[in-house]
Specification:
Low-confidence stretches of chain A: none
Distance between the termini of chain B: 69 Å
Largest sheet of chain B: 8 strands, mixed
CATH architecture of the largest domain in chain B: 3-Layer(aba) Sandwich
Helix content of chain B: 25-40%
Helix content of chain A: 25-40%
Structural class of chain A: alpha/beta
Oligomer: heterodimer
CATH topology of the largest domain in chain A: Pyruvate-ferredoxin Oxidoreductase, domain 3
CATH topology of the largest domain in chain B: Rossmann fold
Radius of gyration of chain A: 27 Å
Structural class of chain B: alpha/beta
CATH class of the largest domain in chain A: Alpha Beta
CATH superfamily of the largest domain in chain A: Pyruvate-ferredoxin oxidoreductase, PFOR, domain III
Mean pLDDT of chain B: 94
CATH class of the largest domain in chain B: Alpha Beta
Chain lengths: 613, 333
């Protein structure tokens, strides 16, 4: 028996939705993370609650990369595919590396399964997988045999097969069972039989792998050496939720979330509704605009008002958003983007709401737009969105996407004591008081909430008279107020961090990315630079206004190449803002970029440039 | 009463110039509201008026309180957020028949079923005034308007019947031309704990003049309005000679002398009674005015507050550090 050291590994669990695949993946990831690996995950599940069992549309999958070095993505392709049925094999086999290992549950390869998956013959024995190693056994039956002494219904016993498989996988990677046993004990402390059954299945899987001779070797992925400290794995939606709780506490204001369920944003509502003991109020509204309106009402009354949604939901919120622009009230709008237009691809990721976030309102209606770069970065960007909304009295759109929302990564847990949110408090003591007098530094108006004595005033969606805030149809005033609103938002650039970039201005090509493409683009640029290519990379998290130094950075490069998961949205903003001929590489498949595709695109682009010269 | 400012109607008048048409019914509502606030409102700063879009929705500008003139139909949703964050505020929603029942129909029914402690004043003139004269959800079928030259094809919605079917805990109707009755109704609404829906029959002097006149005009009201009074029989007409009597699931009109009169009980638990009353319409029936329903139910804010204390009992007060460190682990070096 040999133990092989690996720097990193990518594996994919795939089965029918209902096979417990997401749980299996989450358990393995957490386990890897606790052992000190860097971890990134990519869950992939159907939009339907129960798509027809055994078909490719019902496949639920969970891909993860774990590593002894820093990683930025869940991996382009995997070395191990755990396929619980024929459909899972069919839909995921294309991403298995040549020579990769397939671990297949024979139970899921009945004649019916094979036909449902669209195979004419059993792929496990027709020679079509000759490029791969296949280990096939009836894991379901083995699970049932191991648990037969328990007095449980057979349906419940069969459900434990995911832990049997987890036992095998933990053996393959030379990992202890104890942490998962402990987790099961805690998780099912009220359901003793379920706990016992899953622990038995886990052990049975591990022992099966140990005693059968089909595995000639096991593998080891060590901890990341230089990264010690307190960590947890966190998904983007969780990180956003925690970020807003933290922001509200730092701003000393109650947190109010108005939301309407929509994939992939709903988990923010689910998560925050569990934290009423923090004073968080969640409101599941009757529709999207009601959710935004209630959040705006909450802000008006003095809370940190936030509303969460995904693309189609943002469409419905926009009238409320514009009311926030006109009344100059804080509001954070979280848009977890998904494939569009319309209902589009509910469970697939895309970055195609950028233009909508920028311009999707009637009138000249500028507002800040931010985008989180990774699941853990969602925490930081929640703080930033809250800071900007309350400091500048403006709605802020914070863009996340399906990939960030559901994907998770290792996160160095911050000490809340070290988090400061500097809120520039507008002077409320100025007499006489006018609701639209502006702070000379931030240009924001005072946030005077109902209940404040002696400062009764009326606001609303009609154009305001500058300073007094009275409704006004005066032409010159409208010109002036349009300008005041625009200048306030543009001025935020002085209050956000400068744009960082890797590489130097000696490089002749600048790569730009934004949002969740951060991981894949960063990994690709790193690889290309290691190969000696002279490229720089700037990843944007502040999209409106842009950081002040972005113009200088862009001016330092002859060529600019933008990567984004939409049909040329950021590139158009860049072209318009900086009057340059930036080019773009886009993808709208509902899937994140693969590192290798980015590498290839950059090489192809550079060669094209060289040919042109 | 030491330290409490005594306020009168004028304290609630704002400096903003009023832009309603001369003769508009809204003026009476405004004056009455100001007087009622002086009587019931604790302070100016604790009263918030939130409106949607339409002539009536300009109302908050004319009151020296906090005011928020918002967007089409969404005032109840905004009020929900305001009240949830600060339950100490007296929150009033000002809306019209188009605003509340057409574009805001969804928010109207959901605000009611939540029973938040907000007061919804629905100014019903059965026409779109601000957009200049189209038929509204309360216009009668066949009503000729700018957008219905051959008559509105839609059946009229009865706002209070809708409120009753959403189980409103306070339902009332009054008229813009009867300030004394209006003051009584508004005061009762102000004192109600829960969502109060008040329909105000209001005259649009420009686009739908005298639409309510046949039953609420000075000459016709004695004959055709049925004044609802707690624990009093449902009598109406000259000398109270007519009565409403039970007929299947609804009512019929009978002579008071012959009839076994129904007694008005607004505290009736079932909303069916209020629904039946709210479904009556002129000319087949008298038009009931006054308080249809007034029952006690826990408010949304009360439920939220209760839940928060349960959450604290269960999980302890929020501890940010513990929250961030949940499921964390010390990384091996």
């Amino acid at each position: 028996m040999t133990l092989i050291q690996l720097e990193r590994e990518v594996i994919c669990f795939a089965g029918d939705s209902g096979d417990g695949i997401q749980l299996l993946g989450a358990r393995f990831s957490h386990h890897a993370a606790t052992l000190g690996n860097d971890v990134m995950t990519l869950p992939d599940y159907p939009a339907e609650i129960r798509a027809p069992a055994g078909t490719t549309s019902g496949v639920s999958a969970f891909q993860l990369q774990f590593s002894s070095t820093d990683i930025y993505t869940a991996g382009d392709e995997f070395s191990v595919l755990i396929a619980m049925n024929a459909a899972a094999l069919k839909s995921k086999i294309t991403d298995l590396v040549p020579g990769g290992l397939i671990l297949a549950d024979e139970e899921g390869f009945s004649k019916k399964n094979i036909a449902q998956a669209g195979y004419s013959d059993n792929p496990l024995d027709d020679g079509s997988l000759a490029d791969h190693r296949i280990i096939v056994d009836n894991f379901t039956r083995l699970t049932v045999q191991s648990l037969q002494e328990l007095n449980l219904p057979s349906k419940q016993i069969k459900r434990c097969k995911n832990f049997f498989v987890l036992g095998i996988v933990l053996w393959i990677y030379n990992r202890p069972l104890a942490p998962t046993v402990k987790w099961l004990q805690e998780q099912f402390s009220d359901h003793h039989q379920v706990m016992e059954a899953n622990i038995l299945a886990l052990n049975a899987g591990f022992n099966y792998a140990e005693t059968t001779e089909i595995f000639g070797e096991s593998f080891s992925v060590e901890a990341v050496p230089e990264k010690s400290g307190l960590y947890r794995t966190i998904s983007g939606n969780e990180a956003l939720s925690l970020g807003f709780i933290c922001a509200a506490e730092k701003l000393q204001r109650p947190l109010f979330l108005g939301s309407y369920p929509i994939t992939p944003a709903s988990d923010i509502l689910h998560t925050l509704s569990n934290y009423q003991n923090f004073g968080v109020k969640t409101f599941q509204a009757e529709d999207e605009i009601a959710a935004a309106c209630a959040a705006l009402g909450a802000s008006y009354a003095g809370a940190l008002g936030i509303t969460s949604t995904s693309g189609p939901g943002l469409c419905l919120k926009t009238e409320a958003l514009n009311l926030a622009v006109m009344t100059e009230l804080p509001l954070v709008v979280i848009n977890v983007q998904r494939g569009g237009p319309s209902t589009g691809l509910p469970t697939k990721t895309e970055q195609s709401d950028l233009m909508f976030a920028m311009y999707g309102r009637n009138g000249d209606s500028p507002l800040p737009v931010l985008a989180a770069a990774s699941p853990a970065d969602c925490f930081h960007m929640a703080l930033e969105a809250s800071r900007i909304a309350t400091t500048f009295m403006t709605p802020v759109i914070l863009l996340s996407d399906g990939y960030l929302a559901n994907g998770s990564e290792s996160w160095l847990v911050p000490d809340p004591e070290e988090i400061t949110l500097e809120v520039v408090k507008p002077n409320q003591d100025i007499e006489p008081f006018y609701p639209y007098q502006r702070d000379p530094v931030t240009r924001s108006r005072p946030w005077v909430t109902p209940g404040t004595k002696g400062k009764m005033h009326r606001i609303g969606g009609l154009e305001k008279q500058s300073v007094t805030g009275e409704p006004s149809h005066d032409p010159d005033n409208h010109q002036r107020m349009t300008q005041e609103r625009a200048e306030k938002i543009a001025g935020i650039s002085a209050f956000i961090p400068e744009q960082p970039f890797t590489g130097s201005t000696d490089d002749h090509l600048l790569i730009l990315s934004w949002g969740s493409t951060h991981g894949a683009v960063t990994a690709a640029v790193k690889q290309l630079r290691e190969q000696g290519m002279a490229i720089a990379h700037a990843h944007l998290r502040y999209l409106n206004p842009f950081p002040v130094n972005l113009a200088t950075i862009i001016a330092g490069f002859e060529h600019v190449l933008v990567f984004e998961l939409n049909d040329q949205q950021l590139v158009k903003l860049i072209q318009a803002e900086f009057a340059i001929q930036a080019q773009s590489i886009t993808q709208v498949t509902g899937l994140p970029f693969k590192v290798r595709d980015i590498v290839k695109s950059v090489i192809d682009y550079s060669e094209e440039l060289n040919d042109g010269h | 009463m030491m330290g409490i400012e005594v306020l009168n109607r004028k304290d609630f008048v704002s400096a903003t110039q009023i832009k309603w048409c001369r003769g508009c019914g809204d003026f009476n509502v405004l004056k009455t509201m100001q007087a009622v606030l002086a009587k019931t409102g604790r302070t100016r700063e604790n009263s918030v008026f939130i409106s949607g879009i339409g002539c009536s929705s300009r109302f908050p500008y004319y009151l020296n309180t906090y005011g928020f003139h918002t967007i089409h139909g969404r005032a109840p949703a905004i009020a929900t957020g305001v009240k949830a964050v600060n339950p100490d505020l007296d929150v009033w929603v000002i809306t019209g028949d188009g605003d509340a029942l057409s574009i805001g129909g969804n928010h109207f029914i959901h605000a009611i079923r939540r029973n938040q402690d907000i007061k919804i004043l629905l100014f019903n003139n059965a026409v779109y005034g601000l957009t200049k004269g189209q038929f509204s959800p309360t216009s009668s079928q066949g009503a000729v308007s700018k957008s219905s030259p051959l008559g509105s094809p839609d059946r009229a919605l009865r706002p209070l019947a809708l409120a009753a079917s959403a189980d409103a805990t306070f339902i009332a109707r009054t008229s813009d031309n009867d300030p004394v009755h209006m003051a009584m109704v508004l005061e009762a609404a102000a004192n109600h704990q829960g969502t109060a829906v008040v329909e105000i029959l209001q005259n649009c002097v420009i686009f739908n003049d005298q639409v309510h006149e046949p039953y609420n005009g000075p000459k016709s009201r004695d004959e055709h309005l049925l004044y609802l009074k707690h624990d009093k029989p449902l009598l109406f007409g000259k000398d109270q000679s007519n009565a409403l009597v039970s007929d299947g699931f609804g009512f019929k009109v009978a002579k008071a002398n012959d009839a076994c009169c129904l007694v008005h009980r607004p505290t009736e638990e079932s909303a069916a009674y209020a629904f039946a009353l709210a479904s009556l319409s002129y000319p087949e029936f008298p038009v009931p005015v006054g308080i249809f329903r007034q029952i006690h139910r826990p408010t949304f804010d009360h439920v939220l507050t209760e839940q928060q204390s349960v959450a604290v009992q269960k999980n302890g007060p929020g501890d940010l550090k513990a929250l961030l460190q949940k499921n964390s682990y010390q990384r091996l070096i």
